[in-house]
Amino acid sequence: MKLFGTKETDTHKIYYFCGIKFKFAQWHSIGSVTSDYVFLERNLRENVKMRMNGWWDGYRKQCLNEYFREEIYAWNIVKEKFNHFFLRNINIPQVEFVLTTKCTLRCKNCSNFIPAIKDKYTMSLDEFKNNVDALAKGSNEIQTALLLGGEPLLNKDLPAMVSYIAKNRKFKTIYIVTNATLDFSEELLSAIKEYKDKVRVYISNYSINKELENRLKTKHIVEVLDQNGIGHYTFDDLKWHEMSPCKKLNMPYENVVQRFVTCQAKCVQIYNKHMHICPISTFCEIKKWFDFDENGQEYVCLDSKLSAKTLKKNFIKFYKRDYFQACDWCPKTTYREITPAEQLKEEEAYNG
């Protein structure tokens, strides 16, 4: 007999645990989308997956038997629903901190549109602390935080930022995302080592691109990280696909909603003091392509001086949206596979 079990009806999903039955309403059906369904699919389920599997390295997943992983996943979904709908907890699966829009590379089809941003931005340490404090104050848990750019190692305050966010217990796992073109300073290595149980390094592996052969320091960086006992992950089978330019598509409302609900990108991103749903939304704000609603409709204003109740209310409102304006600007991928990190020539403009 299974410890856990599930059963679905047209109106409810039922979970069984040791003979105890938990019954939850089904919020979605074909042709209809409700805010609770969007919140559940994009937040609660994603939080459970990240808690079980980690972000990229999958180290927890490898430790779980296939049978028990399904059982534990089902039980965690029950707990997640109970914590939110009954205890009113808000758990955030992941956030990306854009520490700078400066970069050592100029990549075609950059997912963060860095080459198209002329007025470069670097997050200050005070801004970073405000954002961390606001997230922690308004939520119960942040499963994964990514420190990226551009190239985050170009931010001189990175060591202090790592120390500040890592000591906050609400942040469970932290990744520094680097393109492996810059060496890690002793100060940064010391900051990571102090919290190496929760801070890891993700190396964007562009070694397949022979154009960058003399600029990448991947091997050396991996050796240094290993010598210091710092966890790291290099995605060897990295694939990039060509994207069309970012422009308004003028889709019908129903199509925009459907596009958001089915979107596989869970890239909530913090730029300046604003929490955006994805890099597309961030880029739209930078370009001022449409008017953003500062009352938390298109993004959440992170202000650590606000009360925990207000911040939590804003986060839940943000996660329950059935679409964002940026969804109508999202560039389509052509699915044509291209060389990762192919560099723009001096005379070339970024297609974003």
Description:
- This protein is an alpha/beta fold and 352 residues long.
- The protein folds into two domains: 82 residues, no CATH class; 246 residues, TIM Barrel.
- It has ten helices and 13 strands.
- The longest helix is centred in the N-terminal third of the chain and has 20 residues.
- It starts with a strand and ends in a 14-residue tail after the last strand.
- About 2% of the residues have low confidence.
Give the H and E element order: EEEHHHEHEHEHEHEEHEEHEHE
Q: Under the CATH scheme, which class of the largest domain? A: Alpha Beta
CATH fold descriptor of the largest domain: TIM Barrel
Count of beta strands:
13
The biggest sheet, with number of strands, parallel, antiparallel or mixed sense and barrel status, is: 8 strands, mixed
User: How many angstroms separate the termini?
Assistant: 55 Å
Radius of gyration: 21 Å
- Count of spatially separate domains: 2
SS summary, helix count: 10
Low-confidence stretches: 27-32
Strand arrangement in the largest pleated sheet: 8-7-6-5-4-10-11-12
Question: Globular, elongated, flat, extended or rod-shaped: what is the shape?
Answer: globular
CATH architecture of the largest domain, by name, is: Alpha-Beta Barrel
Per DSSP, what share of the residues sits in E-state strands of 2 or more residues? Answer: 15-25%
Mean pLDDT: 85
Overall helicity: 25-40%
Output the structural class: alpha/beta
